[in-house]
Amino acid sequence: MAPSEKEKEQWECLFASKVLYQTEILKSLLEECDIPAVTINKQDSSYLFGDIEVYVKRDDILRAQLILEKFLADE
Fold first, then answer.
1. Quick one: pLDDT band at residue 5, thresholds 50, 70, 90?
2. Residue 12's closest CA among 36, 32, 41?
3. pTM to 2 decimals?
4. Which of 49, 43, 45, 37 is nearest to 13 (CA)?
5. Domains (ranges, CATH) in the chain?
6. N or C: fewer beta carbons within 10 Å in the chain?
7. What is the DSSP letter of 41?
8. Are 37 and 65 in contact (CB under 8 A)?
9. Are 22 and 69 in contact (CB under 8 A)?
């Protein structure tokens, strides 16, 4: 069953990268802090242009941004 428009509006893009491992590490960090996260791969499979995006629920965006800032500072 496809998500409704209301359900889609509850998620917000937190981070986008061309590097898959970055998005997977960030997703894991978020989930360790009890923040549900979803990755959506928008890369073209042949030419690898486009991004992989990490989405979190709008209610968790502020906590997720703090985790993102620490993640980017540690890299």
1. low
2. 36
3. 0.83
4. 37
5. 5-74 (3.30.70.790)
6. N
7. E
8. no
9. no
